[in-house]
Amino acid sequence: MAPLPSKTLPSKTSASKTSASKTSAAAGNAKRSRLPPADRASEILNAAMNLVLSDGISRLTMAAVAQQAGVSKALVYTYFPNIAALLQQVYVRENQHLHQQYADALAAPHSFESMVKTTAHISRVAQRERQLIIQRLSADPVLQTQMASEDLKNRAAITAFLTAEIVRNFNIPSAIARQATTLALGYDSAAAAAKSPALEDIWGAMIVGAMQELEKRYGNPQEPNHD
User: Fold this and answer.
1) Is residue 27 scored above 50 in pLDDT?
2) How far apart are CA 133 and CA 74, in angstroms?
3) Are 44 and 81 in contact (CB under 8 A)?
4) Which of 159, 189, 155 is nearest to 177 (CA)?
5) Radius of gyration (Cα) for the chain, nearest Å?
6) Alpha-carbon gap, residue 183 to 201, rounded angstroms
7) Helix runs in the chain, H state only
8) Count of other CB atoms within 10 angstroms of residue 125
9) Which of 143, 21, 77, 82 lies closest to 69, judged by CA?
10) pLDDT at 141
């Protein structure tokens, strides 16, 4: 009689590896399940923002966001009811992040010039880094309206702050300081245009004053006069 084929039993090493793998996976799942809600929401928002940057919003789906975040689609829905709400929160978070940068910079003691330099730097870096995400998000009509509204609020807040700083540091009337601020920042203000003196006069004074200061700091020393 032919001998019965013997069963190949898993080695202790193989069984140990399988057990360790299962344990590791379970630990990983447990770790993810213990993630605080705020961190989980941030994780989902990061995933959505990465997808918007790479593919735009036309092909964005909750399933794609879930896959990018490494969570279930059902979990994404527990935090955001739909794509529109998710995209809105992406924009809100980006805006809040920018506001916090300004707040942190302005909370520190500063001279007027250092304040202007710091805010200009933040604005320039933010514009460069956020340009693509803002451009992609603005493709959504609802978001475009919300972004326009937020932009007006931001401009009003920045104008008010800089106007107050100018008045505090220089002997300039508040109305003139406000007009100068809107001109310097490139804001089109009908309210400022309606007041006197004319914006052209203020703009001319700003340019002349700026050039005089630049000449003082960076101008070439004048050649000595020879008889």
Assistant:
1) no
2) 26
3) no
4) 159
5) 29
6) 11
7) 12-33, 37-55, 62-69, 73-79, 83-107, 112-137, 141-169, 174-185, 190-193, 199-218
8) 12
9) 77
10) 84
- pTM for this prediction: 0.63
pLDDT for 198? 76
SS (H, E, C) 161-225: HHHHHHHHHCCCCHHHHHHHHHHHHCCCCHHHHCCCCCHHHHHHHHHHHHHHHHHHHHCCCCCCC
Q: What token pair was written down for 61?
A: 């789906």
Question: Around Cβ 55, how many Cβ atoms within 10 Å?
Answer: 12
Tell me the CA distances in angstroms from 101 to 91, 122, 194, one per residue in order: 16, 7, 33
Residue 5, SS3?
A: coil
Q: Give how far the C-alpha of residue 69 lies from the chain's centroid of Cα atoms, to the nearest Å.
A: 20
What would the pLDDT profile of 45-71 be if each residue is shown by its tens digit? 999 999 998 888 888 999 999 999 999
Residue 140: count other Cβ atoms within 10 Å of its Cβ.
Answer: 20
What is the spatial distance between Cα 43 and Cα 34, in angstroms, rounded to a whole number?
Answer: 13
